[in-house]
Amino acid sequence: MMLHNALDRYHDRPSSIHDLDPRVKVVVTLLGIFSVLLLPDGAWGAYFLVWCAVLAVALVARLGVGLVLRRSLVALPFALVAITLVFTLPGRTLFTLQLGAWEISASDAGLVRFSSVLVRSWLSVQMAILLVATTRIPDLLHALRHLHVPALLVTILAFMVRYLAVLLDEVTRLLRARQARSAASAQGKAGGSLLWRARVAGNMTGQLFLRSLERSDRIYNAMVARGFRGQYVTINPHRMRRRDWMALGLAFAALTMIQWLGRTLS
Amino acid sequence: MNIALLTRLWEEVVVPRMHIPDGFLSMPVALIFWVITVALLLLAIRKTQQQLGERQIPLMGVMAAFIFAAQMINFPIAGGTSGHLLGGVLAAVMLGPWAGMLVMACVIIVQGLLFQDGGLLVMGANIFNMGLVTAALGSLYHGLAARQSKGVRLVVAGVLAWLSVVAGALFTALQLGFSGTSPFAIVVPAMLGVHMLIGIGEGLITMAALAFVMQVRPDLVAAEAVRTGGGRGWVIVGLVIALFVAVLSPIASADPDGLERVAIDMGFEEVAMTPPYELFPDYVIPFLGETPLSTILAGVIGALVVALVAFAVGRLLRQRAAAA
Q: Which CATH number fits domain B20-323: 1.10.10.10, 1.10.1760.20, 3.40.50.150, 3.30.70.330?
């Protein structure tokens, strides 16, 4: 059983993007995020072009724009960290807020920097989503191996991803069981002292640890019985075809152009 | 599997975490931490391959999945906040320093790669903050407490777990500050303050989980301590990190101007920022937004570290006496 992540069901849609060599997709995604990060603050035209490119890929991959947009909101809570920029960067004052005893004023420079950080981050997340939604996890790991990520790390990742769904099931059952035991009356205060609650959570963690440990023993024995020698082997050669090279070249050209536009326009 | 429940849990657990998304760190900061992280991971891989057999490979994979799953176990603390596990110290205590680092790195790689929880270009920094620093602090356990009484071991593990969250938050805050994403004067006290509270949950769960394993499978905890035997080198590494936190927190909280200057001198910031002290917005945790109090809290860390150092020295002396 593979990992049931929310993107799993998008893996079976045949498209020219799904079909690309996973190495190309990993490299292009990293280059894309790299290039977005290099764009200067307030290069709105360039940001827009990157977004168009992201949407175009999403359409070609038949993912639908909604999926990418919806999933891209995960990084939003972190915006709280950067919002301070609006009120601390020196610049022309836009408006002033009265917060209790404090008076804080927003500056135009701060607003530009804050929105730029946010947009760049949002674009990067969308690129990462495109990569995972169009690439099967074993292919992704295989690509990492080809890109010289150490074999031990990739093998651990492969085992992890393989058993993640099992352990997530396990933890879901533990949590459901705790919830079922923890009834509270409508008025009453439930759940004992803080220490007691922490101990329950700790016991669940310890329980999960022991179950995982025993499972890994069984897995190892089963794998040794099947000839495991410390590494995954694959019969999928992952050979670069002409269109893989073309896609790589096209992506590189597009990113360079956007980079150039972003610097000349702003 | 109940996807809706999982999604809800995931969101509850993820939001208060310190996974930095792409775009929030500047290029130099992101790249520097990639270099550091890659170097440490390569070292960890070499050491692990020397020390452990192929039996440990599935073990580490399943343990990484375990940490990932265990991060979903939460418990209500107060006022709608909940405590949960990051797991670096627990991993290092159970598996030893190097394997613990690899396991934590895999957890953060999967979170970033498959769940977009934490960016790809900033993954080096995320692995460093939440995986390497925490596991290195956890390794202190083997050097300090592995042969002590049960109570001492639990307390040491709990304190280290709390400290690991604070240290991770401090590094995250510093990276954000050096990137010019948030002024030091706000991000350092805010991150430290929030995570001094969140760390309590980490410490309590780590202690309780360790106590559970000690009771049910004492052989595991005892055998781990002997086999991985975190050496004196780890005590030094752990103490250096602890001291770094203890020394830098008060400085950073009391004199963020100094850090700001360093950031500008090193060319990290494109924009010069003057942190206006009198303008602390409301959402900076009320009792920590005030600089003197966060300095006092940082002082508490300092005191704890001093106690740990004294403890370590006492232990070394006793060993010498026993050897003579």
A: 1.10.1760.20
What span, in angstroms and rounded, lies between the C-alpha atoms of B40 and B52?
18
- Residue span of the structural domain in which A130 resides: 8-135+239-265
Which residues in chain A have their CB less than 8 angstroms from residue B161's CB?
A: none
A107: β partners: A93
Q: A32 in a domain, yes or no? A: yes
Mean pLDDT over B77-106 rounds to 85
Gap between the Cα atoms of B318 and B324, Å rounded: 10
Sign of the Cα pseudo-torsion (B189, B193, B195, B199, in order): positive
Report CA B295 to chain centroid distance, whole Å: 20
Pair of tokens at residue A161:
């991803």
Ramachandran bin of B82, using left for φ above 0, alpha for ψ from -120 to 50, beta for the remaining angles: beta
Distance from CA of B235 to the nearest CA of A (A): 26
Q: Which residues on A lie below 8 Å from B3 (Cβ)?
A: 4, 6
What pLDDT score does B323 carry? Answer: 61
pLDDT band (50, 70, 90) for residue A184: low
pLDDT digits (tens, 9 = 90+) for A149-168: 998 899 899 889 888 888 98
Task: Tell me the torsion sign for CA atoms A5, A11, A13, A16.
Answer: positive
Indicate the burial class of B278 (C-beta count within 10 angstroms; 0-12, 13-18, 19 or more).
exposed
Strand, coil or helix: what is A101?
coil
pLDDT at A101: 63
Note the pLDDT tens digit of each residue in B141-183. Answer: 887 777 778 888 899 999 999 999 999 999 999 999 888 888 8
Q: Which helix (H) or strand (E) holds A95?
A: strand A93-99
Nearest to A172 among B6, B83, B180 (CB): B6
Mutation choice for A interface testing from B25, B114, B162 by most A CBs within 10 A: B114
pLDDT band for position B109 (50/70/90)?
A: very high
Answer whether B102 sits within 8 Å of A162, measured CB to CB.
Answer: no
Q: CA-CA distance, B251 to B296, in Å (whole number)?
A: 11
The pLDDT confidence band at residue A180, using thresholds 50, 70 and 90, is confident
State the sign of the Cα–Cα–Cα–Cα dihedral B294, B296, B298, B300. Answer: negative
